[in-house]
Amino acid sequence: MQIFGVDIGGSGIKGAPVDLDKGDLAQERCKVLTPHPSTPDAVADGVKQVVDHFGWTGPVGVTFPGVVTDGATVRSAANVDKSWIDTDARVLLGGRLGGLPVTVVNDADAAGVAEMHFGAGRHRRGTVVLLTFGTGIGSAVFADGVLVPNSELGHLELHGHEAEKRASSKAREDHDLSWEQWAHRVQKYLAHVEMLFSPELFIIGGGVSRKSDKFLHHIKGIRAEIVPAQLQNNAGIVGAAMRAATGG
Length: 248
Known about the structure:
Strands 1, 2, 3, 4, 5 and 8 form a 6-stranded mixed beta sheet that branches. The chain has a 5-stranded mixed beta sheet with strand order 11-10-9-14-15. Strands 6-7 form a two-stranded antiparallel sheet. It is of the alpha/beta class. It contains 7 helices and 15 strands.
């Protein structure tokens, strides 16, 4: 079965049909830049562009970089325009897509669901924390395979700063950090999350998961196992499609 997945990020909007039997993209994904300002209408236009690229006419799952309740309503917007807050994204995007059924989910939660079903978290029990490092830091927390939604651990305070302002992939680029320097910041962040949740496994997702050989070996002193996401930066697309397939 194929369902369409779209992943809205702070820098790009990407999507593709997903083969839900394999947990992989059925076609090469299409990506457009996230508009600036990233208002609801402007981002909806980007989502439509991605979906129209494939001529898709079925259900669509869409991730959003913030808290999403009831598969529809946006409650926070740290890395996109603040006018998203309290927007019914399901109604907005469904209307822009000509009435196609739309399900909306937190971006890291979608990536986590995909990794737990098809990737690095498969068959893992106990507490598992997926962290996506990109424009910000997204998180998905699982207890014995059950998602605790909208955890948003990138906004934890760490040494007087919001964690994602110091340890996101964007922070590495903005501060011109080497991989080793950035890994030390990530290590401090992981230690903080480990102190709070005592996970058995950290899964590192986002675009940096493709480059895990450059930094993971620099992270020391964490008791939990640390592995890169197997679906890499496609996990959000796959998870969005999975959520759409179940109607939320």
